[in-house]
Amino acid sequence: MSEQSVTEALRAWRGGDAHAQEELLRLVYPELHKRAERLLSRERGGHTLQPTALIHELYLRLVDQRQAQWQDRAHFFAISARLMRRVLLDHARKHKATKRGGQAHLVPLDLVGEPPADLGAQDAAELEALDEALAELARLDADAAAVVELRFFGGLSVEETASMLGSSTATVGRQWRAARAWLHARMAGDPATP
Predict the structure, then answer these.
(1) Cα atoms in the 13 Å half-sphere on the side-chain side of 46
(2) Distances from the Cα of 44 to the Cαs of 86, 118, 159, 187, 191, in angstroms?
(3) Has residue 190 got a pLDDT over 60?
(4) Closest alpha carbon to 111 in 165, 171, 151, 73
(5) What's the gap between Cα 129 and its chain centre?
(6) DSSP class of 173
(7) What are the extents of the domains in the chain?
(8) What is the rounded CA–CA span in Å between residue 129 and residue 131?
């Protein structure tokens, strides 16, 4: 999939070309599926959301983004990472709402290292806490929040994230380390964290 062909399909879709949406899906589906598999491989055992279902839900939400002013492939995948985050959060909330008995417990997500191997072992309350902390981080530093979203929810490497954001790997690496530290402190309830 070339960056130019995705960008052209996005612009044609934005321009009202009905066939462009199908072409775009054909171009990006393999990459989105790979990212969904990577993200869901970290989910708890017995997770009911499968990569194909995640992509289908993502697609439905992308269709609602018709008025988005798609800039390029990087913009598309950034929006996709954000929407995957929303799909997972909504799924976790629904799962929590249908659970019978027992109390949800909050154990901070491990954001100290790479994205955790057991993300799905975290419950809905943890995902909600991460979502709130990430929204707060976005108000303070939108670039750092975008790095977390792409790395944690999009499953991108530092190099891929830098490419998507048009930044250097050194800058993304610094933002990733700082954002992880901030989120870890925030989710641990550190009063010194704004």
Answers:
(1) 3
(2) 18, 6, 27, 20, 31
(3) yes
(4) 151
(5) 15
(6) H
(7) 3-98+107-187
(8) 5
